[in-house]
Amino acid sequence: MTTHSTVPGKHHDGRIPAPVAARPLDPRRRLQLALAAVWLLDGILQFQPYMFTLSFGKMTLYPMASGNPVWVAGPVHWVTTMNADHPVATNAVFALVQVLLGIGIACRPTVKPALLASTVWAVGVWWLGEGLGGLFAGTANPLTGAPGAAVLYGLLAVLLWPSERPSAFPAAARIGERPARAVWVLLWAAFAYLVLQPANRAPGAVQGAVTNALTGAPGWLVQLGNHVGKLAAGHDLAISVVLAVAFALVGLSVLLPWRRAVTAGLVGAVVLAALIWVFGEGFGMPFQGMATDPNSGPLLVLLAAAYWPARRSIRTETATA
């Protein structure tokens, strides 16, 4: 009787098996990892020394209640008071939660609970930390991040929920193409509506937004911002109208039946997001050590990537797998 010994990693005839190629990341997983990276960045920013002082509550949280109705301002005041009583402990919790959300989304076994938790956390931050983006205070301005970066975190968590279903673009895999397109249209329609509000088309509104966003920035960036602000002076209404039209066109682009038109609209969204991030949000205003997140600009770029049309070959392979 002949016996055969088996060596780990080899076939029974002694041949070493060919290495198995690593499975490439699908677009949705790449977007999930990008979202995880942003959450980690938020957590790191929350560990800045300023965040552990009383000034964080007074200068960052408390102003979010201004102009808001009682049901919005009340909870904001409560969080501010809690932070004032225990600034180190509360901020440590804020920072650790965001770091854990990033790690959870980055790890496949925990991606679903982490995305669910990030949605809940984003809603809480939007209400208690952003005053619902100023929507009820009459101060919401897309140029400065309205309706709030937290909304985009929650929205991305829903759109990027794991799914094996083939779709025309990553954001539609879980909720379907029509609902996903409706979300995009409504978001950009909201931008168009908000930018036309009286406070955002008033004289000096655009110049003020640019100047405030670049406070404390490097000299060359401040000079560039001042130049842009001077060019915008006296043209606030016209700029608001142009931006509203641009926002509307970007929103409607995903409804068009032509791939190139959809792609052009998404490229337009990226360009608008970049301009807003630089001149309206000042890169999230990290220059003074007070930034809690990069603001809405990078998230809008990530959202546009989630709507990028899938290649036909990828869709075909997924459908036949």
Automatic annotation (TrEMBL):
Annotated segments matching region Disordered: 1-21
Transmembrane segments: 33-52, 88-107, 114-137, 143-161, 182-199, 237-256, 262-280
Keywords in alphabetical order: Membrane, Transmembrane, Transmembrane helix
Superkingdom of origin organism: Bacteria
Protein name stated in the entry: Uncharacterized protein
Phylogenetic placement of the source organism: Bacteria, Bacillati, Actinomycetota, Actinomycetes, Kitasatosporales
